[in-house]
Amino acid sequence: MHYEGMLFRPPSEAQSMLIQVTTGCSYNKCTYCAMYMDAEFRLKPMEEIKSDIKEGAGYRFKRVFLCDGDALAAPTAFLEEILDEIRDVMPFVERIGVYGEARSILKKGPEALKRLKEKGLGIIYHGVESGDDETLKAVKKGATAAQTVKAGQMVKGAGLLYSCIVMLGLGGKKRHVQHAQKTAELLNAIQPDYIGVLTTMLVEGTKLFDQAERGDFDLPSRLGMLEELKIILEALELKRGLLTSRHSSNYLPMRVVFPYQKAEALKVLTEVLEKKDETILKPDFLRQL
Ligand code: SF4
């Protein structure tokens, strides 16, 4: 396989064949992110991609994930050619996923998204991180909450599955409550199929790390992160959907099927917070991004 640099994929794509179609991230400005800091964004040569699809076919994976960060930013015709090739060479593949940011989703527009769906794209993972405009601006996310809602609704309108990633603690102590409340509002407006919860970690080399070193940014405490999750869960009104906090950055792994398991999940969180029992939380040295 023609893999370059570190590859990242959502936890739920752990059993997927990874086909790298772009390198780096087309944006690369979020202050908390170190994933593609040293990587240049570019399209991989089509002959390399097709060769990887041919090689990958031998493993008969049922799912494919197109890497890297924000690969949806690639031109639609380029992605269509890749999806056609996967359908021809791997007819047994049941779902194809990709990361997409608000900018690339909105730039694609409803028609291109529908075409990608028809060609076999199944799910878009979107790191929305927060619904709080102050937080989004502070971390240079490059999209407002309103733009994010529009992008999410566009993906769902195209008939694609939509998975939102949100980050506990991203507003710091300063926007602790607002970050959680506004994030729940954003999720309610979009009604994603899946919500993946991550917990902010300060990664050396990022702007957020430097801000924390200077005392300009304070992460909430470990229990403070769970308070944010509780605020989100309490306010979340999903008609159907799945929220998980099983990413390795989280202190408490949870899996909540909406609407049925919301009350039980809140009970668990409330108990942990009331007892202030940190012994059941994942130790920091086991957390990773
Ligand atoms: S968080 Fe996503 S959009 Fe932001 S720099 Fe990292 S990969 Fe790019």
Task: Characterise this structure.
- The chain is of the alpha/beta class.
- The protein has a single domain (11-275), classed as Alpha-Beta Barrel (TIM Barrel).
- Helix content is 39%, strand content 17%.
- It has helices spanning 46-57, 76-89, 102-118, 133-138, 145-157, 176-190, 207-214, 222-235, 262-275; strands spanning 17-20, 22-23, 42-43, 63-67, 95-99, 121-129, 161-168, 194-199, 241-244, 255-258.
- It has an eight-stranded mixed sheet with strand order 1-4-5-6-7-8-9-10. A two-stranded antiparallel ribbon has the order 2-3.
- The radius of gyration is 19 Å and the shape is globular.
- 42% of the residues are buried.
- The model has no long low-confidence stretch (mean pLDDT 94).
Q: Overall 3D geometry?
A: globular
Q: Tell me roughly what share of residues is in helical segments.
A: 25-40%
User: What CATH first level would be assigned?
Assistant: Alpha Beta
CATH superfamily: Aldolase class I
Query: How is the largest sheet built, in terms of strand order?
Result: 1-4-5-6-7-8-9-10
Kindly report the average pLDDT value: 94
Beta-strand portion reads: 15-25%
**What structural class is derived from the secondary structure elements?**
alpha/beta
The total number of structural domains is 1
Largest sheet: 8 strands, mixed
Ordered list of secondary-structure elements with their pairings:
Layout: E1 17-20, E2 22-23, E3 42-43, H1 46-57, E4 63-67, H2 76-89, E5 95-99, H3 102-118, E6 121-129, H4 133-138, H5 145-157, E7 161-168, H6 176-190, E8 194-199, H7 207-214, H8 222-235, E9 241-244, E10 255-258, H9 262-275
Parallel strand pairs: 1-4, 4-5, 5-6, 6-7, 7-8, 8-9
Antiparallel strand pairs: 2-3, 9-10
Helix pairs in contact: 1-2, 2-3, 3-5, 5-6, 6-8, 8-9
